[in-house]
C-alpha cells in the first residue's frame, strides 16, 4: 500500500477515534457536571451494570427508599444501602454522608464482595429480608 494511502487511513482512524472520544466525553461530562442534581436512581443507572440494575434497585428501594440520608433509628444503619456502621462508606469517599454516587459505589462493591453481584444479593434479600 502506498505510504500516502496508509497515512490517509491512519489519519482517518485517528479522527474517527477522536470523534468517538468526543462523543463519549459528551456523554460523560454532562453526567459528571450534573451529578449534584441527578437523582440517585439516575446515578445508579450510570454506575451499576445494566444486567444488575433491577436487583440493585430493588434492594435500595427496600432498604432506604432511595433516601441518601435514611437512618435506621434502632441500628444506626445509614444511607442508600443502609451501611452499618455508616462510617464503612468512607472507604468509597469522604463525602459518603451526602453523595449518592459515593453511597452507590460502596453498596455495589458490598454486594459484589459479599454476594458476588446485586442479582445474588437480591436473591438472598428475598429469602431473608435483609442483605
UniProtKB/TrEMBL annotation:
The record's listing under Pfam families reads:
SLT
Keyword annotations from UniProtKB, A to Z = Signal
Q: Which InterPro entries match?
A: Lysozyme-like_dom_sf, Transglycosylase_SLT_dom_1
Give start-end of the signal peptide. 1-35
Q: Where is the Transglycosylase SLT domain?
A: 55-122
Could you tell me what this protein is called?
A: Transglycosylase SLT domain-containing protein
This chain's source organism reads Kitasatospora aureofaciens
Amino acid at each position: 500500500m502506498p505510504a500516502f494511502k496508509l497515512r490517509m487511513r491512519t489519519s482517518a482512524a485517528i479522527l474517527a477515534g477522536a470523534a468517538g472520544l468526543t462523543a463519549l466525553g459528551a456523554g460523560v461530562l454532562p453526567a459528571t457536571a450534573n451529578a449534584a442534581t441527578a437523582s440517585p436512581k439516575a446515578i445508579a443507572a450510570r454506575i451499576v451494570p445494566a444486567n444488575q440494575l433491577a436487583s440493585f434497585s430493588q434492594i435500595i428501594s427496600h432498604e432506604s427508599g432511595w433516601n441518601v440520608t435514611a437512618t435506621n433509628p434502632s441500628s444506626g444503619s445509614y444511607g442508600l444501602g443502609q451501611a452499618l456502621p455508616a462510617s464503612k462508606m468512607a472507604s468509597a469517599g469522604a463525602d459518603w454522608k451526602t453523595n449518592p454516587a459515593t453511597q452507590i459505589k460502596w453498596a455495589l462493591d458490598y454486594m459484589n464482595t459479599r454476594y458476588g453481584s446485586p442479582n445474588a444479593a437480591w436473591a438472598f434479600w428475598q429469602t431473608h429480608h435483609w442483605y
